[in-house]
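#lab-general

N.A. 3:47 PM
ok so I finally got the sequence cleaned up, no stray characters, all 133 residues accounted for. can someone with queue access submit it? mine expired

B.Y. 3:52 PM
send it over

N.A. 3:53 PM
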Amino acid sequence: MTIEARLHRDAGALTTLSNGRHVWSADVSRELGSSDRAPDPHDLLDSALAACTTLTLELYIRRRQLAVTSLRVTVERTEGKAADGRTLYTLQRQVFIDGALTDDERNKLLEIAGKCPIHRLLEGEIHVHTQLG
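B.Y. 4:20 PM
back already:
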């Protein structure tokens, strides 16, 4: 899968993203010289975790036919610096589930949340290779 990002300089820093099937946008804040017309890249990363968690849980809920009436996931980001100067990026995820569930079912859903592919990717090792085209 290839993601293409295309900058629209006439709109500040608004960027159109596409995977060939869908199109979405990213931007930066007014303080950074743009129009703040779309989420910034940090919001997109955080939202990937929230969306993946929600969808992973929904697939499990459907498969197990659990009595869930609503599901909501929030992700809150904090950033700081480690003693060695590295950036610390912490994501606090909360899962809110309504429905007639047993404690065992709720605990299993919490376990399943930890198995979402984006969660596992973020806790793993990521390598980025960059070249000019």
